[in-house]
């Protein structure tokens, strides 16, 4: 039983093959395509409480420090606001906020890339660009949150008996389309994020050898970057690997009964990890952003 809908038996396997029970959901084709991506994990209440507390703390600090507002602060505010959508009940908003958060994490990485690798870039131009980019991402996120329910409503009139039907070309196209969008929305930003932080790490490593007086500050910055990369990959990589395996096995493109059952069982775990990112992000950036460095002098690190 999932979201008020009854799970139905999967399409029977070909004769002579081993039966592998893969459930499907009655409803719209769009629901079948995104059902796996927007499953509500058992730990949603814990994530809700932690996410609201940590992101509200970051937004409060940013609002109380208007004089230190810069491009990074704009992206941080957008990231925290996006993460707060995980507290919503609407499944579509949860799914959209997941990738909206990824986009803003990449924006912060690119902003730090220009700040460290190209420090002579105009601050005013970067601030203006941050507002434009943040506005564009918000338009994309809100646009998708409006379009997906409309598509879901339009598809609900098809009255299909079993939506995960391998013989239905329309269903296969929809599911593969959502898979491609999900993987592309993760892989491309990941490449940009890795490149940006690798270049930042390279420059900081050279600066650490040249300037030994601020070695503690450089080491702190390196730890922050490693923490960001570690949390990003830990939260999002298992989810998308599991998503790929789940889709390929349930679409019969990779017929493997054991893998199908394993990916289905692991789904609540990996989605909980992906959702928990909304709690970890504010903690990392809270202690590494310029406004906070000025408010927490005990850290001993100047804002960057």
TrEMBL record:
The chain crosses the membrane at residues 36-59, 95-114, 135-155, 175-198, 219-241, 269-287. GO terms for cellular component: plasma membrane. CDD domains: 7tmA_purinoceptor-like. One of its GO terms (molecular function) is lysophosphatidic acid receptor activity. It is a multi-pass membrane protein. InterPro entries: GPCR_Rhodpsn (IPR000276), GPCR_Rhodpsn_7TM (IPR017452). It holds the Pfam family 7tm_1. Residues 16-285 form the G-protein coupled receptors family 1 profile domain. PANTHER family: G-PROTEIN COUPLED RECEPTOR, G-PROTEIN COUPLED RECEPTORS FAMILY 1 PROFILE DOMAIN-CONTAINING PROTEIN. This is G-protein coupled receptors family 1 profile domain-containing protein.
